[in-house]
Amino acid sequence: MEIVKKQMTLHHTVSVIGGFMAGYTIINHSDILANAQTGNLIKLVLSAFRGDLMSIGYIVLLFFTYAAACVFYTVFRRHTPLSMKIVSLIITALAITATGILSLTGNSYLSVVPIAFAMPVQWNAYKKAGGNSSATIFSSNNVRQAVMLTTTYIMDKDKKAFRNARFYWATLLCFHTGVAAACLLSMVFAAQTVWFCFVPLGISVFAYYRYESAKIRAFADI
User: Fold this and answer.
1) Count of CB atoms situated within 10 Å of the CB of 173
2) Is 121 exposed, middle or buried (0-12, 13-18, 19+ CB in 10 A)?
């Protein structure tokens, strides 16, 4: 039970990173959501109809970056003894640094590319917690699960549904706390706001350490 609680805590702290990156890229980098591809692929079709070749090229670049991250995750997890959770946190640290440096050049488009790589790695590394499938980088499924499980609890008084609903609502709260932080900080620091993502990243590293420590203690007791 202690392991599950710490796993969910880690999931929620990483969700703050996902929300922060989502808010940061939309506000500071041409209304682009680096975390997901749905909106970007819709923009790709719209750009094609408008004949906007620059927009098409950029969105295609983001698509292949996102796809490359999924390939990286699939291949790397097979050949490394490291947990992909810590690998994701390392990649996020590198993405923050790269985005902060690229933002200094004033190129709003290229600045998003490192984040477009880091976020799908995070999504894959933290796709489940406490038996619940949940994305840490966007909200659609979390909203669906939270509402349906809450409805189930109201109808059936199912305690398990209540616990799971609480998990999804907490994930949504943490994600949008990250979004709010990015919004507020961007009012002062603009594109350099990305450096503040090291705060939730540091908290996530600590949560990861506590989660791994709990697993080691549990196996030591067997």
Assistant:
1) 14
2) buried
Q: Is residue 145 part of a domain?
A: no
How many helices (H) and strands (E) are present in the chain, helices listed first? 8, 2
C-alpha 201/C-alpha 18 separation (Å) is: 10
Within 10 angstroms of residue 54's Cβ, the number of other Cβ atoms is: 9
Domain count, the chain: 1
**Position 168 in a domain:** no
What is the extent of the structural domain holding 94? Answer: 2-127+175-220
Residue corresponding to tokens 């994600």? 175
Instruction: Look up residue 208 and give its two tokens.
Output: 């990861």
- Whole-structure pTM value: 0.95
Phi, psi of 37 (to 5 degrees): -110, -15
Task: Report residue 32 as tokens.
Answer: 């682009």
What are the tens digits of pLDDT across the range 144-196?
999 999 999 999 999 999 999 999 999 999 999 999 999 999 999 999 999 99
Report the candidate in 144, 170, 172 with the shortest Cα–Cα distance to residue 18. Answer: 172
| Helix or strand holding residue 141 (H, E) | helix 140-156
Beta bridge partners of 133: 128
On whether residue 204 sits in a domain, the answer given is: yes
* Residue 71 placed within a domain: yes
Residue with tokens 């698509």: 63
Which residues are within 8 A (CB) of 199 and not within 5 positions of it... i.e. 6 or more apart? Answer: none
Q: Which amino acid is at 10?
A: L
